[in-house]
Amino acid sequence: MKYEIQGGNLPVAVMELDKGESIFTESGGMGWMSDGIRMSTNMEGGLFGSIARKLSGESLFMVTYTAEKNGSTIAFPSSMPGKIIPVQLSAGQSLICQKKTFMCAERSVKLKMHFRKRLGAGLFGGEGFIFQKVTGPGIVFMEVDGEVVEYDLAPGEVLKVDTGHVAMFEPTVDFDIEMVKGVKNIFFGGEGLFLTRLKGPGKVWLQTMPIINLAREIIPFIPTKSGD
Question: pTM (2 decimals)?
Fold first, then answer.
């Protein structure tokens, strides 16, 4: 499979598939494709797997696109301004990502739900209890909001992150939450009660413009009906 990321800050992943190559995404993820690609929609992983995906923010259905001839083209656009990150996973290599980060992947990649073990991290971590876990081999395409900043955390190294800015991380990274210290910091610091705590070793990808933050900034400018 050949691919190219086009479009600047409104990116699209354009792929060229040879006969027999497949790529899958959630329902509605494809932008356009050439003739000669077969589309197959199903409830990946059965009913339980579909329900789990719905809880994680994805569609109930997954769609697989398979090229029936060499040189077939298919494109997957981003859903908002940001970056598309292609990651080549080796056999058994995994990444854990937040809701809506997964865009599409080669058919050899496995997509599963990842449940947080700690009650506090699920209740107050900003993303709920369910993440997504992708496992290789194969190429997976991730979508992040705004720009992406990468950190390689050394063993024991800690990074504290505001809610929503964590896009994905390696499974070796410990994910937890901690309460902001100081009464004035809690009430006037503007960061809420909790911060996400990432502890190495492992790599993390942060996004600069989480969609939830963007929505919060836009809401005051949305016209409302008179009298509301």
Answer: 0.81
